Amino acid sequence: MKWISVDDRMPEIGQRVEYYFAPRPDFVIQEHGTFEGYYVDSEGKEWRGMHVFVGDEGGWLTGDVTHWREGSDKNETDA
């Protein structure tokens, strides 16, 4: 499966994916998890630039993911 930029297309809400982000140019983190949609503030405004991914190992990211690809587990995405 090819990597897809979040600028080109987002997964479906609830879709299991593999994703990555780079907090620094020399440090890339790659994980499996679920796309949960977009951040909604206390006034109910949805922030499309603040996409939410929840990792299988716990934790979540808001707006940090740069690329994703389809696949629910490591065996599906390593090909």
Order of helices and strands: EEEEEEH
Quick check: average pLDDT?
Answer: 87
For the largest beta-sheet, the strand count, sense and barrel status come to:
6 strands, antiparallel
Q: Helical region count? A: 1
Percent strand equals over 45%
- Strand tally is 6
What general outline do the C-alpha atoms trace? globular
SS class: mainly beta
| Distance between the amino and carboxyl termini | 7 Å
Specify the helix fraction band. Answer: under 10%
Strand order of the largest sheet: 1-6-2-3-4-5
Low-confidence stretches: none
- Rg over CA atoms, rounded to whole Å, is 12 Å
Please give a handful of descriptors for the protein shown.
79 residues; mainly beta; 6-stranded antiparallel β-sheet; 1 helix; globular
Structure description:
The chain is mainly beta and 79 residues long. Helices cover 5% and strands 53% of the residues. It has a 6-stranded antiparallel sheet with strand order 1-6-2-3-4-5. A hairpin with a 2-residue loop joins β2 and β3 (27-40). The longest helix is centred in the C-terminal third of the chain and has 4 residues, at 74-77. The mean pLDDT is 87.
What's the gist of this structure?
By secondary structure, the protein is mainly β. It is built from 1 helix and 6 strands; from the N terminus they run ββββββα.
